């Protein structure tokens, strides 16, 4: 589990730390985001939700059971109730006491070299509040936004025209990962009409031909979640624009030829 920072080769696509360096550290926490950047991630992805009292926090699941052992629905709990939970010790004693961060706490870690990819999960009014937060913290130029809900993504683009926004898509069935032609056309057409930067797809659905068609449409294509060096090399060879991984330091070292 020893992972260290490695310099990126110019021909490698950017690596995005999935929920931070989530293979090593508790996902969607300040420690995880910091570690991902320390390990050489070009960008870090987090998930956001709103609390019952209107605060935006970094959390993937709709409830806290998996990461804290306490079953609280994020949307029904106050920020104070959520912030007392230990969401670190499940990843190891060294992370005991790690808390659910507010979005602003994570934004404090970004700059021109360290970008944040923000996945919108749920919450009434969350897009408008996200836009206000990025403006207030002066971080709009250091962030990208993505989501599965097209309405959220299109609203984000409308409110934040200078922020790159991406439509997420994943197959409904894991054993049928191919992107149906009609769905591909719809995703590309809607992304272009809304002025989105591109698409973010589960890597199982990505083919060389799909990468080419998305690029021909003037869009970028990101993919997730890739922890296998051979698959990452294949995607890089196809011209993928960025790879999301749980292990940014480890994967970059393998792609750079350091280690096995």
Describe this structure as you would to a colleague.
The chain is an alpha/beta fold and 260 residues long. The protein has one domain (15-255): TIM Barrel. 33% of the residues lie in helices and 18% in strands. The protein contains ten helices and nine strands. Strands 1-2-4-5-6-7-8-9 form an eight-stranded parallel beta barrel, surrounded by seven helices. The relative contact order is 0.15.
Shape: globular
Any idea what the CATH architecture is? Alpha-Beta Barrel
- Low-confidence residue ranges: none
Largest sheet: 8 strands, parallel, barrel
- Provide the β-strand percentage band: 15-25%
Highest CATH level, the class: Alpha Beta
CATH topology: TIM Barrel
Secondary structure elements and pairings:
Elements: E1 15-18, H1 30-38, E2 43-50, E3 56-58, H2 65-68, H3 79-83, H4 103-107, E4 115-122, H5 126-137, E5 143-147, H6 150-159, E6 165-169, H7 181-194, E7 198-202, H8 208-216, E8 220-224, H9 229-237, E9 242-245, H10 248-255
Parallel strand pairs: 1-2, 1-9, 2-4, 4-5, 5-6, 6-7, 7-8, 8-9
Antiparallel strand pairs: 2-3
List its salient traits.
260 residues, TIM Barrel, 8-stranded parallel barrel, alpha/beta, globular, single chain
Can you describe this structure in just a few lines?
The protein contains ten helices and nine strands. Strand 2 and strand 3 form a beta hairpin.
């Amino acid at each position: 589990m020893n992972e260290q920072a490695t310099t990126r080769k110019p021909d490698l696509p950017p690596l995005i730390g999935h929920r931070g360096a989530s293979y090593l550290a508790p996902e969607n926490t300040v420690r995880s985001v910091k570690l991902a950047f320390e390990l050489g991630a070009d960008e870090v992805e987090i998930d956001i939700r709103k609390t019952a009292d209107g605060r935006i926090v970094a959390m993937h699941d709709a409830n806290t059971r998996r990461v804290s052992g306490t079953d609280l629905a994020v949307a029904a709990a106050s920020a104070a109730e959520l912030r007392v939970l230990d969401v670190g010790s499940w990843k190891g004693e060294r992370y005991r006491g790690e808390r659910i961060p507010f979005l602003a706490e994570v934004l404090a870690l970004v700059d021109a070299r360290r970008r944040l990819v923000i996945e919108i999960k749920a919450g009434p009014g969350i897009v408008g509040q996200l836009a206000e937060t990025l403006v207030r913290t002066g971080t709009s130029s250091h962030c990208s936004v993505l989501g599965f809900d097209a309405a959220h993504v299109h609203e984000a683009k409308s409110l934040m025209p200078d922020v790159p926004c991406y439509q997420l898509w994943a197959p409904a069935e894991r054993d049928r990962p191919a992107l149906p032609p009609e769905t591909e056309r719809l995703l590309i057409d809607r992304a272009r009409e809304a002025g989105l930067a591109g698409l973010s797809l589960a890597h199982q659905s990505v083919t060389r031909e799909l990468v080419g068609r998305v690029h021909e449409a003037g869009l970028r294509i990101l993919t997730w979640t890739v922890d296998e060096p051979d698959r990452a090399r294949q995607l890089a060879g196809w011209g993928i624009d960025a790879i999301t991984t749980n292990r940014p330091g480890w994967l970059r070292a393998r792609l750079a030829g350091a280690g096995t």
